[in-house]
Design a protein that fits this description.
By secondary structure, this protein is an alpha+beta fold. The protein has three helices and eleven strands. Strands 1, 2, 3, 4, 5, 6 and 9 form a seven-stranded antiparallel beta sheet that branches. Strands 8-7-10-11 form a four-stranded antiparallel beta sheet, with helices on one face.
């Protein structure tokens, strides 16, 4: 009986260890899947806006500005640009000026940054969209215009390509847009932080058209 009891105890202990190990593995896999889903959703939001990035050449155009911020361990880049709603990837460069004029009412000022203040309604990776284009000097930031893309994204690093990768971009100086943008989001899930990267081609990456009256 003693031997049988010992064998039974060993079998039960082994079965519990196997069950506990499987449970932990499943929990890690679930957490990994949620983290990956968060990263993909954040990168998809950035890509959608970047696909419509334009330089309208009007007085309301603030340009395509990518500011390098934070540190290598905690990147806090900021991106500001003008985007067209529902852009057409097939639009030819020859029709760029006409398309921009025709759809000026669809232009929006888009901004992405990391809001570290968790007391604010929108924090983490946030996005500001200003549907009404106003002169830069008359713009003020309102909390109702800012939405949280993901509260789990704690870092944003951006690079810009024009033949070589750059950490910052200022179209007001270069008079051009980058050909592609590389976005890296750092996602936090519990104590774990993981970086995910994607690169996006900008369909419209031309010189600024001649300024036209609003």
């Amino acid at each position: 009986m003693i031997v049988a009891a010992a064998i039974f105890t060993a079998v039960v202990a082994g079965a519990y260890a196997l069950f506990d190990g499987s449970r932990r593995l499943a929990a890690r896999a679930e957490a990994r899947a949620e983290l990956l889903q968060t990263a993909r959703a954040a990168l998809r939001a950035i890509e959608t806006d970047l696909r419509g990035a334009v330089m309208s050449g009007t007085a309301y155009d603030t340009g395509f500005i990518g500011t390098d911020g934070g540190s290598e361990k905690e990147p806090l880049d900021v991106l500001d640009f003008v985007s067209v709603a529902s852009p057409s990837a097939e639009a030819s460069m020859d029709g760029y000026k006409d398309a921009t004029k025709a759809r000026r009412s669809d232009l929006s000022k888009i901004s992405y940054w990391i809001e570290k203040d968790e007391l604010k309604p929108a924090h983490g990776l946030v996005r500001e969209r200003l549907g009404t284009m106003l002169p830069p000097e008359s713009r003020t930031r309102r909390e109702e215009d800012v939405e949280a893309v993901s509260t789990d994204v704690v870092g944003l690093n951006l690079r810009y390509y024009d033949g070589q990768w750059r950490d910052a971009w200022n179209s007001q100086q270069s008079r051009t847009m980058p050909r592609a943008v590389e976005a890296t989001v750092r996602v936090r899930r519990g104590e774990e932080i993981e970086a995910h990267t994607a690169r996006f081609y900008l369909p419209v990456a031309a010189e600024t058209p001649e300024a036209t009256p609003p």
